[in-house]
Amino acid sequence: MDERNTPMRTYQVCNVMEASQNNWLRTRHIARDGAQRVYIEIKFTLRDCNSLPGVPGTCKETFNMFYYESNNANLWFIKESQYIKIDTIAADESFTQVDVGDRVMKLNTEVRDISNLSKKGFYLAFQDLGACIALVSVRVFYKKCPLTVLNLAQFPDTVTGGDSALVEVRGLCVNASEEFEAPRMYCSADGGWLVPIGRCVCKPGYEEHKDLCQRKCI
């Protein structure tokens, strides 16, 4: 339950009284849909080790996040050594026994990204080495430049490139227009269009009106 008494489904582990923990949670295969760079947003709570009485010094306040690229969407086993580490995740806010009694949920949100993906998809994995943690949600997404019309050229939805690479996109002239200079723009890693080059012009007998070409009034 959260502070509003709303039921919540979480994955949690709290084996802090036992040393040498190595607990793993893995997602299903996640298709990348052509994206070279994806973002992972995780929401979680984490218990303050100092608020747990009698806990040994092996108690952790972090956990690790990994990924494994694969074209196989039905892998049931992946060796620990095959994963690539994304980051060690720490909480900005940890909770104590007082927070539990008051039903105060200190929810942390962290976002990480992985780039230069090339296979059909990937698996995410979370490793616990002795923390008291509840994983509330995991959201995976990518960015794209939205469909737009500029200089009488239409540019389609375009998935951003890996790292900070710009993706060059060729525009198509709208109806009743033709190329004056080949229209191009660049889709940035943040999902914005940059550096418009070239344009289309209306064909004879047409005039420009609100990103379209319409027949001239005689």
From TrEMBL:
<keyword id="KW-0067">ATP-binding</keyword>
<dbReference type="InterPro" id="IPR050449">
    <property type="entry name" value="Ephrin_rcpt_TKs"/>
</dbReference>
<dbReference type="InterPro" id="IPR008979">
    <property type="entry name" value="Galactose-bd-like_sf"/>
</dbReference>
<dbReference type="InterPro" id="IPR001426">
    <property type="entry name" value="Tyr_kinase_rcpt_V_CS"/>
</dbReference>
<keyword id="KW-0418">Kinase</keyword>
<protein>
    <recommendedName>
        <fullName>receptor protein-tyrosine kinase</fullName>
        <ecNumber>2.7.10.1</ecNumber>
    </recommendedName>
</protein>
<keyword id="KW-0472">Membrane</keyword>
<keyword id="KW-0808">Transferase</keyword>
<keyword id="KW-0675">Receptor</keyword>
<dbReference type="InterPro" id="IPR001090">
    <property type="entry name" value="Ephrin_rcpt_lig-bd_dom"/>
</dbReference>
<dbReference type="Pfam" id="PF01404">
    <property type="entry name" value="Ephrin_lbd"/>
</dbReference>
<feature type="domain" description="Eph LBD">
    <location>
        <begin position="1"/>
        <end position="150"/>
    </location>
</feature>
<keyword id="KW-0812">Transmembrane</keyword>
<dbReference type="GO" id="GO:0007411">
    <property type="term" value="P:axon guidance"/>
</dbReference>
<keyword id="KW-0547">Nucleotide-binding</keyword>
<keyword id="KW-1133">Transmembrane helix</keyword>
<dbReference type="GO" id="GO:0030425">
    <property type="term" value="C:dendrite"/>
</dbReference>
<keyword id="KW-0732">Signal</keyword>
<dbReference type="GO" id="GO:0005524">
    <property type="term" value="F:ATP binding"/>
</dbReference>
<keyword id="KW-0325">Glycoprotein</keyword>
<keyword id="KW-0829">Tyrosine-protein kinase</keyword>
<dbReference type="Pfam" id="PF25599">
    <property type="entry name" value="Ephrin_CRD"/>
</dbReference>
<dbReference type="GO" id="GO:0005005">
    <property type="term" value="F:transmembrane-ephrin receptor activity"/>
</dbReference>
<dbReference type="GO" id="GO:0005886">
    <property type="term" value="C:plasma membrane"/>
</dbReference>
